[in-house]
Amino acid sequence: MQNQIDAAVKQYRKLLNDQLDRVARMEKGEKAKDFTAMNKIVVGVCGGDGIGPIIVNEARRVLDMLLKDEISSGKVEIREIEGLTIENRLAQNVPVPVDTLEAIKGCDVLLKGPTTTPKGGTMESANVALRRELDLYANVRPVCVPEENIDWIFYRENTEGEYVLGSKGIEVDGKLAMDFKVTTDVGTRRIARAAFEYAKTNGKKNVAIVTKANIMKKTDGKFSLICHEVAKDYPDITADEWYIDIMTANLVNPEIRNKFEVFVLPNLYGDIITDEAAQIQGGVGTAGSANIGDKYAMFEAIHGSAPRMIEEGIGDYANPSSIFKAAEMMLRHIAMPDKAEKLSRALAICNEEEKAVVVTGNRDGATCKEFADYVIKTLETL
Ligand code: IPM
Ligand code: MG
User: Fold this and answer.
1) 118 pLDDT band (50/70/90 cuts)?
2) What residue segments make up the domains of the chain, in order of their start?
3) DSSP 3-state assignment of 145?
4) Do the beta carbons of residue 139 and residue 198 sit within 8 Å?
């Protein structure tokens, strides 16, 4: 056992140093890309696993239609990114193959289908690796329920917390296992800034800071403290302190839930609560997700690759709404708000108003392609 303890202590020293190196890199900072000043924007599209290629393929058709003029003038290039399949990742034993990562770095933004994450073992999730490699620190997830006046936006910290060392825990065989949670000053400050800036530029009056700082005293304690420090620069916005447990209860309390506007929270709580929020909106198949960094940005569905649907032979019935929402967020990010608005309007018509073609995720509903045709037809009328 002593050998294992010695190895663990050595590993711990390395982890600490690596994280301090990351802090130093973050402290240097990077200027955010200005899409309005770019002559050419490269949009990568990547299928992923399971239902991923099916829904991404339809999202691409929607983008091809919406960006027809920009593509033919050369202002936008849509580039297929290959190699992010579970088979390829397992064969190479890496979360993101080197050439795939290079290809992704050659794009300005990426629209990505879900990728399967193996449970257990040490294989890191492709998502987590991409968020880290591209330094996509803000995971932004909007959720709206118009009939209840719910208009939420979640700013989930996306590069630290339980995720950053999630595949690098320590184990003493047959005795114990330890994972680590990491919160840095600079990492917290930038997500807090992103959340408060969003609130300010969108006329929101309230930011909920959500942690479990009463228990995770060092990490969440720091997160809460720094968010409150940042809040001081935004005197017109109220910063409220909440614990994650009661906040999950608040979201299922119809009496108070529409009072919340912007949420800022550490990675794992953000992961969990955004699934809950998406379910309130109509299911995880309905919400889009943006992973934003200063240099790169990646847009995805918030659901997984649904291998069960593939096994049951019903992959073609997958709901592409979540990846379409992600495409809408991408268009807004690349400074094409009119196109984003158009897609948003078409999705509202197809999913909420007319509902002439309904995807149920099963054979009793429409296929992914039929729904995409409906969206494209609706877009033509706008
Ligand atoms: C999400 C997903 C990912 C996460 C998985 C696929 C790694 O659940 O984007 O919310 O845990 O962040
Ligand atoms: Mg999740």
Assistant:
1) confident
2) 32-136+293-382, 141-154+164-281
3) strand
4) no
Tell me how far the alpha carbon of residue 40 lies from the centroid of ligand 2, in angstroms.
32
Alpha-carbon distance 51 to 307, whole Å? Answer: 7
Among 257, 292, 297, which residue's Cα sits nearest to residue 144?
257
Contact 12, 78 (CB under 8 A): no
Residue with the nearest Cα to atom 11 of ligand 1?
A: 271
- pLDDT tens digit sequence for 164-223: 998 899 999 999 999 999 999 999 999 999 999 999 999 999 999 999 999 999 999 999
Ligand 1, CB cutoff 6 Å, lining residues:
117, 125, 127-128, 271, 302, 304
Q: Per the structure block, which two tokens stand in for 372?
A: 């995409």
Measured CA to CA, the distance from residue 319 to residue 315 in angstroms comes to 9
Residues across the chain: 382
Give the CA diameter of the chain.
71
Closest C-alpha to ligand 1, atom 9: 302
CA of 317 to the centre of ligand 2 (A): 21
Angle at 337 between CA 129 and CA 305, to 5 degrees: 35
Domain 32-136+293-382 has CATH 3.40.718.10: yes
- Kindly give the distance from the C-alpha atom of residue 94 to the centroid of ligand 2, in angstroms, as a whole number: 21
Same fold, 32-136+293-382 and 141-154+164-281: yes
Nearest-atom index, ligand 1, CA of 115:
6
What does the block give as tokens for 258?
Answer: 């529409």
DSSP code of 334?
T
Ligand that lies nearest to the alpha carbon of residue 130, given by its number in the listed order: 1
Q: What count of other Cβ atoms lies within 10 Å of the Cβ of residue 218?
A: 10
Please report, as a single letter, which amino acid is at residue 275: D
CATH class of 141-154+164-281: alpha beta
CB atoms within 10 A of CB 214: 11
